[in-house]
UniProtKB/TrEMBL annotation:
Residues 90-204 form the Nitrite/sulphite reductase 4Fe-4S domain. Keywords: Coiled coil, Iron, Iron-sulfur, Metal-binding. InterPro entries: NO2/SO3_Rdtase_4Fe4S_dom, NO2/SO3_Rdtase_4Fe4S_sf. Residues 32-67 form a coiled coil. Gene3D superfamilies: Sulfite Reductase Hemoprotein, domain 1. This is Nitrite reductase. Pfam families: NIR_SIR (PF01077).
Amino acid sequence: MGMMKFAVTPGFEVGGTILKPEQLALLGSIIGENAKIELTNFKQLYVELEEERIEEVKRELAAIELEIYPAGFVTKSLITCNFCRGAEDAGLAIAEKLNDMIAGIPTPSPVKIGYAGCALGTSEPLLKDIGVVKMRDTFDIYVGGEPKSLKPTFAELFITGVNAEQMMITVDKLITYFQMNGKNKEKFPKFIKRISMDKLREALAN
């Protein structure tokens, strides 16, 4: 009997990513005592259980408003701020749309994408592979952040002052370019250094 993993999140709302007590209780009862739960550093719960139960369990978890994503070498669900400036000002609806577009895409290595609704950057977008920062009515996009080091690397500004549609197109292009040109298991920041920011900008401009 094989074991398989999938990821679970509660979705977005003002105040941050919140798991309700009843969701936690039902999560435990649905997956059963033989399953394993791992808390990741990108606000997902990895659930591991018997392969034959996967689809049934996914349906039951979706019924209690938990979002289900693939685990492994994929783009992770969007890591967001707490929308402390409110849903409209911080762009909650845009963040949800961005998450729907990017989450679960196969990539050479896992890709973490951060979203901040203002320059406070409480979701630490400059420490993510791709960081999106809402600056009033436009967006800045950063690439190549790396937190796992004694000397963390901040992401570099890739493009500034784009609207929501242009932001989502650019993020989609970044992921696709990494899909097509990244080496197996190559981390996104190393990929950026290997190809250079200039070449990346040139490639995405076409």
